[in-house]
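User: Structure please.
Assistant: Input sequence and predicted structure:
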Amino acid sequence: MRCYVLTGISRNVIEELLRRNIRTVELRSAHNVATALRAEIGDCVFLTPARVNDLGRGVSGLIAEITGKEIMSQSLFYSSPGYMEECELTVVRLRLKPKGVGRMVQVSRGDVLDTTEADVVETSYFDAR
């Protein structure tokens, strides 16, 4: 199945999603935000702790379906006695429903702020390797 790929997700977050203790993930990194902006409700996402440069055949992760999406902008202010700086940040919250675990078969990436997609196969715990 074809999935959007979200990388650098903590193993603890993935485990909590599998246990259904949490249902929403907040994405702040530029490459994950770019991918999440293109994803729609009902699409499949693949969450993995691997970094974007380490993606390849055999990388494992969680397959989930998007059940909700929220886009927010946040402003951060930094100041010192003679200096003030404002930074705007786009944050995407995805509400997810876990479907299972899987492995990547093939990855397709574009430029820096393009989406990352992969062909993923769902694995079962009974598969011998």
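Strands lie at 2-6, 24-27, 44-47, 60-80, 83-109, 116-122.
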